[in-house]
Amino acid sequence: MNYKMIMKILAPLLAIEAGFMLPGMFIAIAQHQSHVVHAYLQSLIVIGIAAGLLWFFSRDARKGFYAREGLVTTGVAWIVLSVLGCLPFYFSGAIPRYIDALFEMVSGFTTTGSSILNNVEAMPDGLLYWRSFSHWLGGMGVLVFLMAIVPLSGKNEGFTLHILRAESPGPSVGKLVPRMKKTAMILYYIYIGLTVLDFVLLLLGGMPVFDAFCTAVGTAGTGGFGIKNDSMAGYSPYLQNVTTVFMFLFGVNFSCYYLLLLKRFKDVFRDTELRVYGGMIAASIIAISLNIRGLYPTIGETIRHAAFQVGTVMSTSGFATTDFDKWPEFSKAILLMLMLGGACAGSTGGGFKIARIVLLVKELRRSVHENLHPKEVRRIRMNGANVDEKVIRNLNGYLIAYVGIMVISYLVISLDGFSMQTNISAVFATFNNIGPGFDAVGPTCNFYAYSTLSKAVLIFNMLAGRLEIFPMLVLFSRSNWERR
Amino acid sequence: MKILIAGGGKVGSELTAKLSAEGHEITLIDSSADVLESVMENFDIIAVQGNAASMEVLEEAGVRDADLLIAATDADEVNLLSCLTGHGMNPDLHTIGRIRNHEYRHQAYEMREVFGLNMAINPEREAAVEISRLLKYPGFLNIETFANGIVEIVSLKIDSSSPLNNISLKKLNSIIHCQVLVCAVQREGQCLIPDGNFVLKANDIIYVTASTNNLSTLLKNLGIITRKVKHVLIAGGGRISYYLARELEATGLNVSIIEQDADRCEELASLLPNATIVIGDASSQEFLDREGVEKYDAMVNLTGLDELNIVMALYARARNVPQVVTKLSHAEHNKILETLPIGSVVSPKELSCNTIVRYVRAMQNSAGAARSVHMIANGQGEAIEFMVTENDLHIGEPLRTLKIRKDVLIASISHGIRTEIASGNSSYDVGDIIVLVSNGKDAIRNLNDIFTD
After folding, report:
1. Is B171 found in the same domain as B73?
2. How far apart are CA A263 and CA B315, in angstroms?
3. Which of B251, B286, B321 is the last residue of a domain?
4. Each residue of B339-393: pLDDT tens digit?
5. Distance (Å) from the alpha carbon of B20 to chain A's nearest alpha carbon
6. B12 shares its domain with B68
7. Number of domains in chain B
8. A158 and B27: CB-CB below 8 Å?
9. What's residue B382's pLDDT?
10. In which element (H, E) is residue B355 found?
């Protein structure tokens, strides 16, 4: 393991984090909240020292960097960013307990949106900025951002691919263009472009600038931290609809947008994952609208709430316009199913990913078929291309890890004595990076009541869910740390 | 530039390494997912799986906005078809195809427009040409020619008994009694650009430029025998052996080829009527003794196994064969092999890669800066040839007044047919050809890049 090279990548990463904290401090200065300014200054000093030490000890780094280092770098980077990123919350006293601050930060970076805050509106704007903006940073990935602006050079320059694969969601991650730097830049251009568009549309709807910014970055990362106690419920129907549309848009694979830029419309419309995504959205909205009819005065409002809630769960954002915990059981069941599905591979959303579900269904069909025709040779195809058997094998491993982590997490947090629905939905909501669950962790409630142990488990779940399990699991695998 | 490379074999992956390091955007096409995966691990490139001659695969690889297609798969036919298809899809595309089978040699050249081929590369033939050049100038490890053949940079190994051992370069000319310039030194796998205080050591490989007369004086004064080669023994009867025998016979040398496979011997005998073809195992020392290996002026080891070639070279050296040339297909081992007395080393892969890299640089320099670029010291350094134009700085000023990058050395200046080995008093004019040597990582795209001011 090349520890020094990993440190060498972590140092600029912390610098980036510190850089994006600065606006939060400026907001606090403008609003004369000296305790927040001090909290930021202290945090920046700690981060600065950490980055300096990392840089100092990694000056003579050897350049070998392989798949193992890629996975470990990603896992460690996200932990370090969260551990240091939550300091402003803690130092300012806005969140008095460190584990709660860490929970809030991890929830931000992993674009989960689960909160431990009872009263969001009491939080100073300077901290709200950092809380929401962490969604945006975590959505596309901080390491991808690093690759877009800094030329990471190693002996084997292809190593950046391992980082992209470890940090970007989806079963088979690839580059868009030969150069990693350019790939990362294209992804961020699309990301920034869509975010700005969302921001402008929200402003046009009369939303205050700060609210519009926080909502836009929260939607872009499919995060879902609201800055109001009632999340999005207090905003006008127009603002809710804009957010619905953008939640769906950010749940789409970004390579689809790249193909649109290249004017390859046919490839986009033939994309299996996109079609399934669209189909699931439409079917869920219709089913829920029929189920909850009568709860709201007009059909329009019914559909608006149904669409918003489907969007928030499917794209794994986590905003809410209504307390869907009060909906009939059938609608809640649909939302619970959608929680598992998640967004498209290569989007900023979390969850199991539609692409994986499509592949699993195809594999199931093949297994059934092979039982009937044992001699027949069949390849699994997606979008007209053969899927490598290795991808299928990884997928099975992923499924086992996915289910296994959920079962164990559920078991551990059950110690706290909440209802079964609360616990199951809490695990679902954090592991799939959604945000709110049902019952005691529903849209109007929060995760504050859980014990420290449960919070630690849920923090692990959020990180494992965002990084697609393996970068986190390798950190706990003994063979990874043995000297060889 | 956007470059497609078809085939991730020896040449394909070496080219990927070199061209990617020069900042080009590479798309590699190969039919094996494993090959692609391992190349992707190492280089910042994109990979496409499939048959490089198929339209869909080329389309997916982005041939329509690519600048160059290099077809280096195992099969000549696929390479030709790939270039043909690529050129059909994008008329502005430059194509380089590897054509190894000598039966296609003529059509690959004469019908190149039909195939849409800008350059055909034959690694085996290039290796044969290189070997025959080495045999003509015995004593040197390598020879690179510049400025239409008037300037030569030769490489020479210093052993512990050499008079040059422990000599600083300032005293060099007084020891060998002629004017030469050491432009690069390869030591422990690194390429160094020396100055006057540089002290030569045993096992250094030096790159020397001098006029042709001075080069033979150098060899004579250094006590390196320059017996003219007349009889050449070739071990192995592959493609290189065939090309080499043809090349050598054309200049009137006697060639014997040892080949194990009886059918191949028959084939060679019919292709090469003047050569002596012997069936036998060249790895058997007893057999080599029986063939009288010590009576040959040169032995060339061209079997398909690097290890065998090395062992045979060592044996030939032990038998006092004056000139030994060894083919190695995996040149990566070079750093270790430098310490063994195996004579000149030729790597077909390196040679064809260098030719292609030279082509790519020439494409990039369509403004006409570098005329040619040669790799030296296992690719650690490069010798670059420039024609001086009006836009270049410091025309007519003596070199000693110029501020030149530390990793660059001007080796020679050719005014028309007269070539001058660069010294502090030399200067250049518009139209002169300058050869310079560099070990820097920063590419030198035009002459002005070498100045620090």
Report:
1. no
2. 65
3. B321
4. 778 878 888 888 888 888 878 877 776 544 667 777 777 667 888 888 888 888 8
5. 9
6. yes
7. 4
8. no
9. 81
10. helix B348-364
Q: What is the DSSP letter of A388?
A: P
For residue A254, is pLDDT > 70? yes
Residues B202 and B238 in one domain: no
Q: Are A93 and A38 in contact (CB under 8 A)?
A: no
Take residue A12 and report the two structure tokens written for it: 């600029």
CATH of the domain at B34: 3.40.50.720
Q: pLDDT digits over A383-439, tens only?
A: 877 888 888 888 898 999 999 999 999 999 999 989 998 999 999 999 999 888 888
The string of DSSP codes covering A73-135 is HHHHHHHHHHHHHTHHHHHHTSS-SHHHHHHHHHHHHTT------S-GGGS-HHHHHHHHHHH
- Three-state DSSP state, B17: helix
Q: Are residues B31 and B81 in the same domain?
A: yes
> Are residues B344 and B310 in contact, defined by beta-carbon separation less than 8 angstroms?
no
**How many Å lie between the alpha carbon of A387 and the closest alpha carbon of chain B?**
11
Q: How far apart are CA A208 and CA A233, in angstroms?
A: 15
pLDDT of amino acid A43: 95
Helix A98-109, helix A125-140: angle, nearest 10: 50
Does residue B287 sit at the A interface (CB-CB below 8 Å)?
A: no
Q: Which residues of A touch B (CB under 8 A)?
A: 66-67, 156-162, 174-175, 177-180, 182, 388, 390
Whether B360 is in a domain gets the answer no
Residue of B nearest to A162 (CA): B41
Q: Which of A156, A180, A390 sits opposite B41 (nearest CB)?
A: A156
Contacts of B33 in chain A (CB under 8 A): 388, 390
Total number of residues shown for chain A: 484
Please state the rounded mean pLDDT for residues A52-72: 83
Q: What is the mean pLDDT of residues B32-38?
A: 86
Using the Cβ of B413 and the Cβ atoms of chain A, whether some distance falls under 8 Å is answered with no
Q: State the pairing for strand pair B433-438/B408-415.
A: antiparallel
Burial class (CB in 10 A: 0-12, 13-18, 19+), A59: exposed
**Helix ranges restricted to H, A293-328:** 299-314
Laid out side by side, the sheet with B142-146 consists of B142-146, B151-157, B205-209, B181-187, B190-192
Q: Which of B221, B244, B277 is the last residue of a domain?
A: B221
DSSP structure string for A232-280: TTTS-HHHHHHHHHHHHHHTS-HHHHHHHHTT-HHHHHT-HHHHHHHHH
pLDDT of A133 strictly over 80 = yes
What is the SS3 assignment for B4?
Answer: strand
Considering the domain boundaries, does residue B245 fall inside one? yes
Residues B100 and B70 placed together within one structural domain of the fold: yes
Q: Which domain holds residue B266?
A: 231-321
Amino acid letter, residue B344: S
Average pLDDT over residues B186-192: 82
B34 belongs to a structural domain:
yes
Token code pair at residue B304: 């398909």
**Nearest CA-CA distance, residue A66 and chain B, Å:** 7
B114 and B182 both lie in a single domain = no
A373 three-state secondary structure = coil
Number of H helices, E strands in chain A: 22, 2
Residue B104, min C-alpha distance to chain A (Å): 33
For residues A56-61, average pLDDT: 85
Phi, psi of B121 (to 5 degrees): -110, 130
State the DSSP string of B208-254: EE--HHHHHHHHHHTT---PPP-EEEEE--SHHHHHHHHHHHHTT-E
Quick one: B188 and B275 in the same domain? no
In a domain, B185, yes or no: yes
pTM for the model stands at 0.80
Q: How many residues does chain B have?
A: 453
Residue with the two structure tokens 């190693």: A154
Q: In this structure, are B390 and B413 located in the same domain?
A: yes
